[in-house]
Amino acid sequence: MEIHTYRDLIVWQKSIELVVEIYKITDEFPKEEIYGLTSQMRRSAVSIASNIAEGKLRGYKKEQRQFLLNAFGSGGELETQITITKRLFFGRNLDFSKSEFFLEEVMKMLNKMITIISNS
Asked: How many distinct structural domains can be found in the chain?
């Protein structure tokens, strides 16, 4: 399959699925978290997809690598926020399996892409 745009990247497609899952799960958070973890988690997830797209649109490998690193960093933020939420009383009964699955897939793909760009 030929890649013409960021929409053709499987990592971008999976990151969009991750955003949708994060929005679904944060809808279950208490309303007082709207400006706390809800906002942070949504922004982190959106940042992953956005940085993948912007990096693909950049013409130079050095810029692409930097945006992929930014996406990877946002993934680390999201992973941390999920861990915190799971330990809080309101997060204990929520099912994070889909979001964690997509996050793990995206992080592996980003790591591979960063390695390939760094070595080329």
From this structure: 1
- Does 1 fall in a domain? no
Q: Could you report the per-residue pLDDT of 17-54, keeping only the tens digit for each?
A: 999 999 999 999 999 999 999 999 999 999 999 999 99
| Residue-range definition of the domain harbouring residue 33 | 6-118
Closest to 66 measured CA to CA, from 54, 77, 76: 54
Cα angle 20, 1, 21 (rounded to 5 degrees) comes to 10
- Alpha helices, DSSP H, located in 1-120: 10-26, 37-57, 61-87, 97-118
CATH code, domain with 58: 1.20.1440.60
The verdict on residue 26 lying in a domain is yes
Q: What is the mean pLDDT of residues 112-119?
A: 95
Distance of CA 94 to the CA centre of its chain: 19
What is the number of other CB atoms lying within 10 angstroms of the CB of residue 1?
A: 5
- Measured CA to CA, the distance from residue 110 to residue 31 in angstroms comes to 33
pLDDT higher than threshold 90 for residue 58:
no
Residue 67 lies in a domain: yes
